[in-house]
């Protein structure tokens, strides 16, 4: 379904100011006119990667405020087909400094990133393929729904073109047994698809690492998703957006509850509503590696919480194998 300027309601946690990043879209037809009703967004932090420069007016004169952006991690791997993880047939490209927050990703340069429509299309999250039949996402994305009515789309750049892409029905969800909404601890889930995706130049797998020191503070990382570009936005992005951020320590805007969470952001570049479950990607052994999962945050444009994927080796391998 399309997302024509819906109204959003924020469903907050009773114990914390964190909000999940799930966008719930409800479309009601009344008297032949489409009215958009309450859409619950469980925040985590979506991609505050806007495409326009921030402008302000001063005495009738428009001024432009620019943000610096980080250099991207270096990955120079050679694409090798279906057995390859973390390497795309289309190389990602990154903009030079002075573009605010984020920008449209090069088409099909992140072939493991998927769009997940849950509850018959009423809930939207991101995720990433780690096998052609398994998707990792955030546990809070699936906490209030069932596998029935969930569809995963792969090999897409724009959400509006998803009907022409590969899609698969989800057979079952497996959320971490110790997932807690209090602080979003163990915010990880694995979706098992009814049948595998076909590997193509636009559908691939992200690499994993079980080195629990990764990602490390100071490391540069890439986030990508279809989330809104500001906390006041009413529409998720049709285009896949990306931004370069930095893994950071604890701060006023982001406080990990344990070592299985990490903070990341940079100068206004951040995840936002609708990006939950998507990957934080770093370079490990010259391959793009999904070392984090978009989890939660205190609004957009600040450092946000990510689930550290490497801390869940036994959980992941117990489902997808070694």
Question: What is the fold's blueprint, element by element?
Answer:
Blueprint: E1 9-10, E2 21-24, E3 26-30, E4 33-37, E5 40-43, E6 54-58, E7 61-65, E8 103-104, E9 113-118, E10 123-131, E11 134-137, H1 139-142, E12 151-154, E13 166-175, E14 189-193, E15 220-225, E16 241-248, E17 261-265, E18 279-284, E19 287-296, E20 304-308, H2 313-320
Parallel strand pairs: 1-5
Antiparallel strand pairs: 2-5, 2-10, 3-4, 6-7, 8-16, 9-10, 9-12, 10-11, 11-14, 12-13, 13-14, 15-16, 15-18, 16-17, 17-20, 18-19, 19-20
Description:
The protein is mainly β. Among the domains are: 9-43, no CATH class; 113-205 and 314-320, Trypsin-like serine proteases (Thrombin, subunit H), CATH 2.40.10. Helices cover 4% and strands 34% of the residues. The protein has helices at residues 139-142, 313-320; strands at 9-10, 21-24, 26-30, 33-37, 40-43, 54-58, 61-65, 103-104, 113-118, 123-131, 134-137, 151-154, 166-175, 189-193, 220-225, 241-248, 261-265, 279-284, 287-296, 304-308. A hairpin with a 2-residue loop joins β18 (279-284) and β19. 47% of the residues are buried. GO terms for molecular function: serine-type endopeptidase activity.
């Amino acid at each position: 379904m399309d997302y024509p300027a819906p109204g959003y309601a924020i469903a907050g946690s009773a114990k914390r100011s964190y909000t999940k990043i799930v966008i719930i879209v409800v479309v009601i037809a009344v008297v032949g006119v489409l009215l958009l009703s309450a859409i619950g967004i469980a925040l985590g932090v979506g991609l505050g990667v806007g495409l326009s420069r921030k402008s302000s007016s001063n005495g009738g004169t428009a001024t432009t405020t620019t943000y610096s952006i980080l250099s991207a991690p270096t990955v120079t791997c050679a694409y090798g087909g279906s057995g390859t993880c973390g390497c795309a047939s289309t190389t990602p490209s990154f903009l030079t400094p002075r573009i605010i927050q984020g920008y449209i990703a090069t088409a099909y340069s992140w072939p493991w990133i998927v769009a997940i429509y849950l509850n018959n299309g009423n809930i939207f999250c991101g995720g990433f393929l780690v096998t052609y039949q398994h998707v990792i996402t955030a546990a809070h994305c699936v906490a209030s729904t069932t596998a029935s009515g969930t569809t995963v789309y792969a090999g897409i750049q724009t959400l509006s073109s998803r009907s022409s892409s590969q899609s698969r029905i989800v057979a079952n969800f497996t959320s971490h047994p110790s997932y807690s909404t209090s602080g979003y601890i163990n915010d990880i889930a694995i979706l098992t698809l009814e049948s595998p995706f076909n590997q193509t130049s636009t559908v691939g797998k992200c690499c994993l690492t079980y080195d629990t020191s990764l990602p490390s503070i100071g490391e540069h990382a890439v986030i990508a998703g279809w989330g809104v570009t500001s906390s006041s936005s009413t529409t998720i992005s049709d285009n896949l957006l990306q931004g370069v951020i930095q893994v950071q320590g604890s701060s006023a805007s982001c406080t990990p509850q344990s070592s299985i969470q990490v903070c990341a952001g940079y100068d206004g570049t951040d995840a936002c509503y609708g990006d939950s479950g998507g990957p934080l990607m770093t370079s490990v052994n010259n391959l793009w590696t999904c070392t984090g999962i978009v989890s939660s945050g205190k609004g957009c444009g600040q450092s946000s919480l990510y689930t550290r994927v490497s801390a869940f080796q036994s959980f992941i391998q117990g489902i997808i194998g070694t």
